[in-house]
Amino acid sequence: MGMPGGWEWIIILLVIVILFGGKKIPELAKGLGKGIKSFKNEMKDEPETASSEEPKKVETDTKVSSTEETPSSTTKQA
Q: Can you tell me the distance from the alpha carbon of 61 to that of 63, in angstroms, rounded to the nearest whole number?
């Protein structure tokens, strides 16, 4: 399995034109370009903010309140 050759690219492009139409392709390419540009900008900003911030710890409440009944307190001993 390698890269598609000449005929494969022509078939792929033909299928894309059939699916999306000639007018929709430039809009899709423009949106894809904006998305890639935004992604690259975020990747440039990420190392600066990631190194200065510490991960947030999530606190959980594992204590059982004294008013709740536990299974051992409800059973009768003979």
A: 6
